[in-house]
Structures are given as C-alpha cells and as structure tokens.
Amino acid sequence: MIVLGVDPGTRHTGLGTVTVEGSRERALGASTIHMSGDLDHTIRLQRIYEGVLEAIDAYNPDELAVELPFMGKNAQAMLKLGRAQAAVMLAAMHREVPVAQYAPAEIKKAVVGNGRATKDQVTYMVRQRLALTETYSEDAHDALAIALCHAARRHTGPPAPGGSAKAASGAGRKTGRVRSWSDFIEQNPERLR
C-alpha cells in the first residue's frame, strides 16, 4: 500500500509518501511546498492543490492522509488552515484517491506512542522507523508521520476513547473510507458537539 501524507499549511505544506508491505515501511519521497507570506491566499491554495496533484501523479498513492486543523484561538488562522486542508482533499478527489483525516494527537500517538509528543520526538521516530538518511523539513517529516499513522490505523483501527481493548481493536466501530461529510459523521460520532 502506498500512502501520501499531507501536513497542510498556508506557508508550508509538507508532503510525504510511504509504502507499506506487511511490517516493512519505506519512504518513497518527501517535500515541502513553500509559499511567501505576502502571496495572496487564493494563490497559495492553488499552489497547494497543484502540488498535491503533482505528488499524486508522481507516486500513485492508494490513499491520502491529511492532518485535521488543530483547534486554536485564532479563528482566521483556523479558517485558512481549513481551506488548505480542503485544497488537499479536492486534489485527492479529482484523482479519485480516498482521503482519511487524523487529529494531531492521534498522529503523535501512532508514531511516538504519546499523543503529546514534541515535534522533535515525532521527527526522531519518523527518521528511525523509515531509516531516513536524507534531511527533510519539519513539515515533510510531519507529512511522513501522517502517512505512517494512516498505515498503522489501516491495520489496527482507530484509537479507543479511554483506551479500552475492545475499542482499540476497532470492534463495534465502523472504519473505512471517508467520501463525504455524512460518512465522516457516521464514522466519528464522538467528534460531534
């Protein structure tokens, strides 16, 4: 299975592609889309969209995983990150690549074993697990972490609220591709407030 992980950002968007065969994980490539702070926001979204299309065309991933925007205090920043995520998802949908979304804490938990891990800890574990010799940007390492998280969740299912063994195995919970908001809501009822 080939997974393209994307860490969306309005200044830097990380892309990381991982192939997983059984327990063997290998990085196929990683890069970062860098955008100037004075560039119009709509042009940045276009660059993200085009960059994701290029990565999809280059690596032909089976699935794409994207990080959900974290809940911050700045509503404008959240809106911009949501738009960046939407540009990523739209590119995937145009190439008919299924999309999965993960919260930052879930990614950290899957890669490091701790949902409150630091950026340095995530980078270290990504480099160790993938035996990386090249140095990538922090955003590209984050994208590789997102891809690794998705690959792990495909085998183990979503994490359990409260950590029960039944929920950790995915029992009693639907998993699968999210193709619409109704699918997302059905698969993630605990995220509704």
Cα-to-Cα separation, first versus last residue: 34 Å
Number of strands: 5
Order of the strands making up the biggest sheet: 3-2-1-4-5
CATH class: Alpha Beta
Beta-strand residue fraction:
15-25%
Q: Please count the helical segments.
A: 7
Topology as H/E string?
Answer: EEEHEHEHHHHH
Largest sheet geometry: 5 strands, mixed
**Overall form:** globular
Estimated structural class: alpha/beta
Helix content: 40-55%
- Average pLDDT number: 86
- Rg, please? 16 Å
CATH architecture: 2-Layer Sandwich
- Within CATH, the superfamily carries the name Ribonuclease H-like superfamily/Ribonuclease H
CATH topology descriptor:
Nucleotidyltransferase, domain 5
Question: How would you describe this structure to a colleague?
Answer:
With 193 residues, the protein is an alpha/beta fold. It has one domain (2-156): Nucleotidyltransferase, domain 5, CATH 3.30.420. It has 7 helices and 5 strands. The chain has a 5-stranded mixed beta sheet with strand order 3-2-1-4-5. α1 packs parallel to α2. The longest helix has 20 residues, at 75-94. The N and C termini lie far apart (34 Å). Mean pLDDT is 86; it is low at 162-175. Residues 162-172 have a biased composition (Low complexity). Its main location: cytoplasm. Its cofactor is Mg(2+). Belongs to the RuvC family. Its EC number is 3.1.21.10.
